[in-house]
Amino acid sequence: MVNQPNKGERKRKSGINAGNYDQQLEELVRLLNGLKDTNAELVKEKEKFKSERTALEQEIESLKSKITAPELTVWEQKIEKLKSEETALERRIDGVKYKITRVERGLKKFMVTSLSSPLFLFYGYE
């Protein structure tokens, strides 16, 4: 009778090389941390745009009686531009959050398949 490997061994041999678990795990963690940093920067940038837009809106309200129609149009265009930039930033933030979620899922799956990895003990599993 031929000795057949169990399914886990077969999967490991056909999947990720056993020697590269730690290296690939470190790459996934680095990617995840980079995405989280990018997300934090985008959120800060969005808040900056939001505060600029709010300040412009307040300034317009206080100056409405003193501003002529053409000047008012220019201010309203500036506000619309800031709103569109804010919307674009929100889309980028959503994209980065999606990537973070995908990397976290991949990291969890990777760690489940590499329970023998010493880094598994360091990073843990949620």
Automatic annotation (TrEMBL):
Protein name according to UniProt: Uncharacterized protein
Top-rank taxon: Eukaryota
Coiled coil, from the record: 18-99
Keywords associated with the record: Coiled coil
Organism: Rubroshorea leprosula
